[in-house]
Amino acid sequence: WAFVQTDEHNAVAPVAYELMGKGRELADARGCRLVALIGMSPEGSLRDLEHLVCAGADEVLACRDERLRQNDAEVYARLICDLVAERKPEAILYGATAFGRELAPGVAVRLQTGLTADCTVLSMDTETGLLQQTRPAFGGNLMATIICPRFRPAMATVRPGVMKKRECKKNVEILHPAFALEAADIHTEVTETVKAAKKLVDLIGADFIVSVGRGISKDVEGGIKLAEELAEVLGGVVGSSRACVDAGWISADHQVGQTGKTVHPKVYVALGISGAIQHKAGMQDSECIIAVNKNEGAPIFGVADYGIVGDLFKVVPELIKQIEAAKAAQ
After folding, report:
1. Residue 132 confidence (pLDDT) above 80
2. Band of pLDDT at residue 105, cut at 50, 70 and 90
3. pLDDT one-digit tens code per residue, 191-250
4. Tell me: the pLDDT tens digits for 286-296?
């Protein structure tokens, strides 16, 4: 199953389509069905369900109830546990959103089953039929692959932006299971959802990312400014390694890597980034990687399509100049 998170307007969260793409791949490897589970208010449109069908679902379980309008973890946990008792899925995938991280542990405790949080890789062992769930461990210093051999369903939350969406149109059955819930069953009430307005960088949706690393240490402000200027001429955004975030040079929403965001831009420019395994895991699937580093033995050059050995403070202004000249010529 893939849990499809919605908001108060019944809009589907983008990570749901990523779960459907990976879920389709896992279900095909296992030889089983992929089911999308979605909760919505009584007046919710079926339009988004059609998109889930196109994303690869064999079946959609659409539950309608006024209490499903809000993302109340207790209500959704009760719904999921009742359906699991009836239908007995082998595995359930959730997006590692704020709500997914609240909901999945509650379901795991009620069902007394295993949960692997914040996965970056999912695969199916075709011999044993076990879901293999890989996630960073020990502060991101290694990758741990976890299985749940004894209990069902195996459950995992998946970091947004890690899995790729895919188009897979097919015939699908949409069911509306009965959902019985008494007021006495629920001990919490969501009275209001308050959202704070904060401008965050959209790394996951960016086609061009210019990231900075520890190499900007001799002039932090100047290094970040150069990255911003290069990102501007490319029409992209600024990213960062964990070292810059930990040092307080840039905010955490810019971080790329195992403990940050996983990105797949058309062009990824790494400025002064050595290329530790934690960072490479978050950007190595970019279509084109350009690395600038003074150390010719830096690991980042191992995944780069183009490598420039040099001082980024000298190289980047020249890159900006050449790009602007090329754009002017066009």
Report:
1. yes
2. very high
3. 777 776 666 788 888 899 999 999 999 999 999 999 999 999 999 999 999 999 999 999
4. 999 999 999 99
In the chain, % of residues over pLDDT 90 = 39
Q: What pLDDT band is residue 153 in, cutting at 50, 70 and 90?
A: very high
Distance between CA atoms of 22 and 15, rounded to whole angstroms?
11
Q: Check residue 106 and give its pLDDT.
A: 92
Contact 5, 97 (CB under 8 A): yes
Strands 35-40 and 59-64, sheet pairing: parallel
Separation of first and last alpha carbons in the chain = 49
Q: Is 190 left (phi over 0), alpha (psi -120 to 50) or beta?
A: beta
- Quick one: tokens of 242? 């964990």
* HEC per residue, the chain: CEEECECCCCCECCHHHHHHHHHHHHHHHHCCCCEEEEEECCCCCCHHHHHHHHCCCCEEEEEECHHHCCCCHHHHHHHHHHHHHHHCCCEEEEECCHHHHHHHHHHHHHHCCCEEEEECEEEEECCCCEEEEEEEECCCCEEEEECCCCCCCEEEEECCCCCCCCCCCCCCEEECCCCCCCHHHCCCCCCCCCCCCCCCCCCCCCCEEEEECHHHHHHHHHHHHHHHHHHHHHCCEEEECHHHHHCCCCCHHHEECCCCECCCCCEEEEECCCCCHHHHHHHCCCCEEEEEECCCCCHHHHCCCEEEECCHHHHHHHHHHHHHHHHHHC
Locate tokens 């997006």: which residue? Answer: 95
Q: Is the peptide bond before 14 cis (omega within 30 degrees of 0)?
A: no
Rounded-to-integer distance, Cα 326 and Cα 288, Å:
19
The pTM assigned to this predicted structure is: 0.62
Task: Measure the CA–CA gap between 231 and 6, rounded to whole angstroms.
Answer: 33
User: What is the rounded distance in angstroms from the CA atom of residue 180 to the CA atom of residue 78?
Assistant: 10
Instruction: Provide the mean pLDDT of the chain.
Output: 85
Name the amino acid, one letter, at 167.
E
